[in-house]
Amino acid sequence: MGWFSNRRYPAALGAVFLVLWVFSAWGIQYPFDFFLEHILTVLLLTLLMLTRRRFLLSHLSYTLIFGFLLLHLLGAHYTYSLVPYDDWSHALAGFSLTEALGLKRNHYDRLVHFSFGFLMAYPVRVTIPSVRPMATVEPRRLTMSRNVGIS
Fold it and tell me: What's the structural domain count of the chain?
């Protein structure tokens, strides 16, 4: 059995995230922006810890949340509009991603907004029956409404 099947998997993801968060706080250009961008991160992690027994999320759900938080962590470190993904694509693949896609600005914020809806849909979908057991609206519709409303 690997880590993915271990019952301590969510705690391990949380520990890895906290270590990465501490490292991402060093060398930031805009400390106040970093603080503001992580207010909701702290609230989400607190909510996950406080409700871990009520909402029994799967390891897949925790992995998807972790993936979104990593994208957010990167965006908060650089400030979303300054994430140097173009420099990385040029160094790794030898071309500018912005030029190849015909973009005029840094679209990392759009990637993270899309990822929020994509990666958080499943965890929200599986928690809806716990929150509203007799929901008159299908959980899929509630998930879609939540994604559109929060994004």
Answer: 1
